[in-house]
Specification:
The protein is α+β, with helices and mostly antiparallel strands. It has two domains: 2-106, no CATH class; 110-176, no CATH class. The protein is built from six helices and five strands; from the N terminus they run αααααβββαββ.
Length: 184
């Protein structure tokens, strides 16, 4: 057993660290953010960053192989293979990049932000948590994020009551809570 551990210690350490990142670190970062803010960040910045990273890396591989071999065909094959491989890995591990970006965002607080919500309930129903739909005044849409509903709802909240929630803005401009949204 000792010989096995000594022989594969680097591989074992790699898988322990990798599993910790995938199973704990990356998913926990989402607890500090609203679902709409995460989706907006992914659409606006993360996808573009990953595509740009893949394109630049593929072009660097193309140039380096062309300089080394002076063959257009080999450079083209290297460009395609690096591009396809990177696209695969960036797609598979995009949640790790997202978790890292959200973590970095929280480390550098730039500003505070107040979001205003209006309490809306489904027409003709009881004013309970199951029928509660917070309307975000700034974006102009009703949020269905369970974290937000759990944070904002309390007994006695009436139709059209205004609720203000304080957020911090991080390095990338994504609004987050200082403490994770609690599940109630």
């Amino acid at each position: 057993m000792k010989a096995f551990l000594l022989k594969y210690k680097r591989t074992i350490i790699f898988w322990i660290v990798f599993s910790s990142i995938v199973l704990y670190f990356a998913p926990v970062q989402n607890d500090y953010y609203l679902k709409d803010d995460i989706n907006n960040f992914k659409r606006t910045y993360l996808t573009a960053f990953l595509i740009l990273t893949g394109a630049v890396t593929s072009l660097i591989a193309l140039i380096l192989v062309f300089i080394k071999t002076k063959s257009v065909m080999q450079a083209y094959v290297a460009f395609l293979s690096v591009g396809v491989t990177l696209a695969f890995y960036l797609f598979i591990f995009q949640n790790i990049f997202l978790g890292a970006s959200l973590f970095i965002n929280r480390q550098f607080k730039r500003d505070t932000l107040k979001k205003t919500y209006v309490a809306k309930y489904m027409v003709g129903t009881d004013q309970t948590k199951d029928n509660f739909n917070p309307y975000d005044i700034s974006s102009g849409h009703i949020s269905t994020d369970d974290k937000l509903i759990n944070k904002l709802y309390h007994k006695g909240l009436k139709q059209d009551d205004t609720i203000i929630l304080k957020f911090d803005k991080g390095l990338f401009g994504i609004a987050f809570q200082s403490y994770p949204f609690g599940d109630k």
